[in-house]
Amino acid sequence: MKEIEITFNQLKENSNLGDYILFANSIKGKNYPEGSITKMFNKLVSKDEYERGDKPTLLKHLIKLSLTKF
């Protein structure tokens, strides 16, 4: 899980993109467990960037993104 945070922070230093996009790029294709994605999403992605009701859909997308090979 620390790897997700390190990658996220490195991307954030060099980008003006939002937290959700940076987080998605941090986990893309890396096959992280669902629990790790959820925990780090809650820690790293600002709640101002998404509607509360959208969170389950966003997490489903991120989990699929993590499992997809690029």
Tell me what you see in this structure.
The protein has 70 residues and is mainly alpha-helical. It has helices at 2-13, 19-27, 34-44, 55-67. Helix 1 (2-13) packs across helix 2 (19-27).
Beta-strand portion reads under 5%
The count of β-strands is: 0
Which structural class fits the helix and strand makeup? Answer: mainly alpha
Tally of helical runs: 4
> Secondary-structure element sequence?
HHHH
- Termini Cα gap: 20 Å
Q: Mind telling me the C-alpha Rg?
A: 11 Å
Tell me, briefly, the overall form: globular
Helix content: 55-70%
Taking pLDDT < 50 over at least 5 consecutive residues as the criterion, the unreliable ranges are: none
pLDDT average, as an integer? 96
Main traits of this protein?
globular; mainly alpha; about 70 residues
Provide a quick synopsis of the model.
The chain is mainly α and 70 residues long. It contains 4 helices and no strands.
